[in-house]
Amino acid sequence: MTTQDLHIELRGAIAVVRLTRAAKRNAINDGLILAIRDAFMGFPDTVRAAVVDGDGDHFCAGLDLSEIKERDAGQGMHHSRMWHAALQEVQFGRVPAIAALHGAVVGGGLELASACHIRVADETTFYALPEGSRGIFVGGGGSVRIPRLVGAARMADMMFTGRVYDAAEGERAGFAQYLVPKGEAFTRALAIAERVAQNAPLTNYALMHALPRIAEQPADQGFLTEALISAIVQSAPEAKDRVRAFLEGRAAKVQKQ
């Protein structure tokens, strides 16, 4: 799965997926977006969570714009749909993805980050959507995913005006769930991934696949979907073992951290 632009490292149950185009601030070309798709489709069964990171000073500065200069409308549409298919594998694949953000999280980089399930940013992180000033529009699923994080009005403002959010502003706005000191995003993301990997696989699957869809359903449909998913998840042997361990005092109780 490792390519010139993407490095995959397996650390026990965790797959580290690292963009390695540091000289280009990890801008995403066609080969890289397809490599990301293939990586998330091809994890071995032993992988229970993934960390997405960027080599060098930046997580990802977005789409490599040199690749869109000569596309006509039809080619542009198919290119966008290729990104959709790739990032669908990140968001709705087999394992949760935790993004370790630092430096630029811009354009397509923000689209990649928004496809992950948890985002950890360090103090160097900044967020931007410069497509508006460049005469283009997001094409990697950003118009669907980013408003669900921060709202359509905030996303529109970023594209209308070129507004840039720094790390602290971004955490308050909802771009990231965690903010850590400079250089610590990967370490925290890896620790979170290791914690997530300990969950029952069906619980993680329900959180990835059912929860976002329930959130988009009318309430009566959401309640029914929840009941069905809840019944399926709790019927798994691992779930029964974990509940039994709690009832017998063999499992840790929730405590304030």
Textual characterization of the structure:
With 257 residues, the chain is of the alpha/beta class. The protein has two domains: 6-196, 2-enoyl-CoA Hydratase, Chain A, domain 1 (Alpha-Beta Complex), CATH 3.90.226; 201-247, Lyase 2-enoyl-coa Hydratase, Chain  A, domain 2. Helix content is 47%, strand content 15%. The chain is built from ten helices and nine strands. The protein has helices at 30-41, 73-91, 108-115, 142-150, 152-161, 167-173, 185-196, 201-216, 219-234, 237-247; strands spanning 6-11, 14-19, 49-54, 97-101, 104-106, 118-122, 126-128, 165-166, 178-180. The strands form two sheets. It has a six-stranded mixed β-sheet, sandwiched between helices. A three-stranded mixed β-sheet has the order 5-7-8. A hairpin with a 2-residue loop joins strand 1 (6-11) and strand 2. The protein starts with 5 loop residues before the first strand and ends in a 10-residue tail after the last helix.
